[in-house]
């Protein structure tokens, strides 16, 4: 497969690397909410698929609007529609799936529950756990388009050159990281910043930083072993500079790749296509994927989550609800369509087909699909969509990451992080336990 050949893939690269996207006419509010028009908001990457659906349904009047993937964009526009009582999209794609918690909340009242609209047999076809971020109080409010399970990416060439083995456990990972920092100064084995630290390490460990019990209840408890073991893992690595606090999407991170300093990087599935080659400049034939290491006391590796997208249907769709649901169902479950998408499909059958091309991709040192598939089927429960997503990331940087940078006590920083998380949850209308 020629890399970056598909137009949709190129568009997705642009969105991932620069965080930009055409607005195609802004919010696209409809005049008078015409009952015969299906208003659809999607990002650039999903636009061709939506247009394909429109062409195959000539009797359906559709208006498809391109929206940017910026955090907060959709909730802001829906809030405006709520005030004016018009302009709601019948279908919307969320590049930030955590925003489903906002749009499904009583305050917004936008997202329609899908349990009675999408058959259970269809919902059961999604990768286990992938709809957890769409589920609140036992009701499903969205369908995932793609997921971003974390794996242990590593440079197979450097591993062989240095004589290291790919770690199976986090203890082995720590030991390899410390050896690499000592023997090859400047080499890193991980990144700790924002969602790339919190989602990878704390998410895979099952630390309840955002365990969503309902639309109004969330469990936050950073004092347990599933949290402290992460601090204990990263403390010595931080002191030896084996993990960096530079954000992977920051241009400065590419210097590490160009200098052959990225030995390992626990990161989401999409890093394989969108970061190591185009951003980090790691040459073809070097990057490989392994399952996430296993935490102490457990017998299987669990994956964290960093990214992915979701489709919602409006509770205001009225007579257009059936058409809206049919579009969302097709966009997320059509195997032929999803097999061509740039990122890991949430629908299990589509993921298998999608993986056929990935397995043959010459960029990788070995087939990454066994690790990606294992990760997709081992998403750690308890990582929910929350309305304080931005605060979740910023408070992590203000406490834990700050402690990493200052050589502080990482266990102690967990208490400060918990305090900030509970305050953010309360401000967002949650009861935090």
Describe this protein with a few key phrases.
17 helices, five-stranded mixed sheet, alpha/beta, disordered N terminus, 15 strands, D-Maltodextrin-Binding Protein, domain 2, globular, 2 domains, 433 residues, 12% strand, three-stranded antiparallel sheet
Topology:
Blueprint: H1 7-18, E1 38-42, H2 47-55, E2 62-66, H3 73-84, E3 91-94, H4 100-103, H5 120-123, E4 135-136, E5 139-140, E6 143-146, E7 150-155, H6 156-162, H7 170-183, E8 190-191, H8 194-205, E9 211-212, E10 217-219, H9 225-239, E11 243-244, H10 254-258, E12 264-268, H11 271-274, E13 287-290, E14 309-313, H12 321-333, H13 335-338, H14 348-359, H15 369-376, H16 389-405, H17 410-427, E15 431-432
Parallel strand pairs: 1-2, 1-3, 8-11, 10-15
Antiparallel strand pairs: 3-14, 4-5, 6-14, 7-12, 7-13, 9-10
């Amino acid at each position: 497969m020629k890399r970056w050949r598909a137009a949709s893939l190129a568009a997705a690269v642009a969105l991932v690397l620069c965080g930009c996207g055409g607005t195609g006419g802004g919010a696209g509010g409809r005049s008078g909410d015409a009952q015969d028009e299906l208003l659809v908001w999607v990002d650039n990457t999903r636009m061709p698929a939506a247009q394909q659906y429109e062409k195959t349904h000539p009797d359906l009047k559709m208006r498809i609007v391109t929206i940017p993937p910026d955090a907060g964009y959709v909730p802001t526009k829906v809030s405006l529609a709520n005030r004016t009582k018009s302009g709601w999209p019948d279908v919307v794609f969320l590049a930030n799936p955590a925003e489903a918690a906002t749009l499904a909340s009583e305050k917004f009242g936008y997202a329609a529950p899908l349990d009675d609209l999408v058959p259970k047999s269809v919902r059961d076809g999604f990768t286990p756990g992938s709809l957890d971020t769409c589920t609140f109080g036992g009701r499903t409010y969205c369908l995932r388009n793609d997921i971003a399970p974390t794996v242990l990416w590593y440079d197979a060439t450097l591993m062989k050159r240095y004589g290291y083995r790919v770690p199976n456990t986090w203890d082995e990972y720590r030991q390899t990281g410390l050896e690499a920092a000592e023997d090859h100064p400047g080499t890193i084995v991980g990144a700790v910043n924002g969602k790339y630290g919190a989602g990878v390490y704390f998410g895979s460990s099952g630390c309840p930083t955002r365990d969503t019990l309902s639309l109004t209840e969330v469990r936050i408890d950073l004092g347990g072993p599933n949290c402290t073991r992460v601090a204990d893992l990263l403390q010595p690595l931080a002191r030896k500079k084996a993990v960096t606090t530079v954000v992977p999407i920051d241009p400065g991170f590419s210097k590490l790749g160009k200098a052959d300093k990225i030995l390992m990087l626990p990161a989401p599935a999409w890093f394989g296509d969108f970061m190591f080659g185009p951003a980090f400049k790691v040459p073809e034939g070097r990057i490989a994927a392994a399952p996430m290491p296993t935490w102490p006391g457990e017998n299987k590796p669990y994956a964290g989550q960093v990214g992915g997208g979701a489709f919602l249907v409006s509770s205001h769709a009225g007579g257009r609800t059936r058409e809206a649901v049919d579009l969302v169902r097709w966009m997320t479950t059509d195997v032929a369509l999803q097999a061509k998408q740039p990122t890991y499909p949430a629908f299990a059958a589509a993921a298998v087909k999608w993986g056929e091309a990935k397995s043959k991709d010459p960029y990788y040192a070995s087939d990454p699909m066994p690790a990606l598939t294992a990760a997709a089927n081992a998403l750690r429960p308890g990582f929910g969509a929350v309305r304080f997503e931005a605060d979740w990331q910023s408070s992590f940087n203000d406490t834990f990451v700050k402690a990493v940078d200052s050589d502080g006590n990482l266990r102690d920083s967990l208490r400060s992080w918990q305090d900030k998380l509970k305050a953010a949850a309360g401000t967002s209308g949650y009861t935090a336990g």
